[in-house]
Amino acid sequence: MTESDKRLFQRAEDGDARAQYELGVCYAEGRGVPQSDGDAVAWWRKSAEQGHASAQYNIGLMYAHGRGVPQDDTEAVAWYRDAAAQGHARAQLNLGAFYWEGRGVPQDDTQAVAWYRHAANQGHASAQFNLGWLCANGLGVAQDEAQAVAWYRQAADQGHAAAQFNLGWMSAKGRGGPQDDVQATA
Question: What is the mean pLDDT of residues 41-56?
Fold first, then answer.
């Protein structure tokens, strides 16, 4: 164990939330310690209980996938909600997905849109794509193809392949704006 690893362990043992989070990552990835999902969750929980948003998000992931803890969508939602409330974009995206799918919460398109919008407004490409799709199809919001194109464009500009495809298709068909073969193939 390196001196740096020893210092990280000591800071984590002393209650440093960031060190606890980082040690959880080390256990999750098997970096400098034997890989252990259970130990990762234990360290992230200590950090999360101090309000560390990324630790809260990671615990949500672990419950969602049943890694190091029993799979439990309701518990995943609770942890995602804590992180999302602090502005964690990936937690907001996942919370939107859980509302969309009705996992751990009653299915609710309007809540899905609200959480996707929070993440999208922070520049999260997948949330922007999801909002585009929901706007194009009038799910959770009034159907608005122009708004769909705007969300798809933001995601496409970040290299999101499905958004690029949908944006091209909408341009080719004149949906959400004028028909434009040049834009459709761009």
Answer: 98
